[in-house]
Design goal:
Layout lengths: L4 H9 L18 H33 L12 E8 L8 H12 L16 E4 L2 E4 L4 E6 L3 E8 L4 E8 L2 H10 L5 H25 L6 H22 L5
């Protein structure tokens, strides 16, 4: 055998270059440390998201099908009281709202009352009489709603508390009523965890065997279906 054929045989016997295991990852990142970190990130964010999504999924089904399935969340408990305030009359609405918050442990800000009267003048025996000024406000939390009103001329305070049942509490929690900045931060954390879980899941999914094009086709079809379904419900169409 000639010397010229030896290099050719060596080249032909050389092992083919290893196929990339994770097509979406650069080759320098396909190492044990980074892959271990990627899998742990995916697992922990998935666990955090799953705990929250169990609650959101249950309350979402409760809200979406409560009318069709006749789901009874339980009657709320209502308590009311009306009394003459013995202290110095409040100077403005903000002062009355601050007193309600301090006296009854309310952390929420005052909102407009649903039952606030809009009549400024009334007619009695043919005479136009100015209606007494009344300050109405509403404090809404996930577990209860507190309606408060105050008549400055009579120094009269009226309070009504509506306590939700446990299922009603979960429903209000799903809607984010009365949660404030805590709920916003929680949803931001869930959104961030979902993004990390999705990105890490895509990178890990790239290693899986099977018809990836079929999976992408199903995802694309689902996205189109959701888009068209939402379009039929919009006012005026898309």
């Amino acid at each position: 055998m000639s010397d010229t054929t030896a290099p050719r045989m060596a080249a032909s016997e050389a092992k083919p270059r290893a196929k990339t295991m994770y097509p979406f990852l650069p080759s320098e990142l396909q190492r044990g440390t980074f892959l271990l970190w990627l899998k742990r990130t995916h697992a922990w964010t998935g666990l955090f998201g799953a705990c929250v999504f169990v609650l959101l999924g249950f309350t979402g089904i409760l809200l979406n099908h409560r009318a069709v399935w006749k789901i009874d969340t339980g009657a709320p408990t209502v308590s009311a009281v009306e009394f003459v305030y013995e202290g110095t009359p409040f100077e403005d609405r903000d002062g009355f709202a601050a007193w309600v918050q301090d006296s009854y442990g309310v952390a929420q800000e005052a909102g407009s009352s649903r039952d606030a009267p809009t009549i400024e003048r009334v007619s009695f025996e043919g005479q136009e009489i100015a209606a007494a000024e009344r300050w109405d406000m509403r404090f809404r939390g996930p577990n209860a709603v507190l309606e408060a009103s105050y008549v400055p001329a009579a120094n009269l305070v009226a309070l009504e508390r509506t306590e939700h049942s446990f299922l009603g509490f979960l429903k209000e929690l799903h809607k984010g009523h009365g949660i404030g900045i805590v709920w916003i931060l929680l949803i931001d954390a869930v959104g961030g965890a979902l993004l990390l879980m999705s990105l890490s899941g895509i990178l890990l999914w790239s290693k899986l065997h099977g018809p990836r094009l079929a999976a992408l086709g199903l995802l694309g079809a689902a996205a189109v279906w959701l888009f068209l379904g939402a379009g039929t419900m919009t006012i005026g169409g898309l």
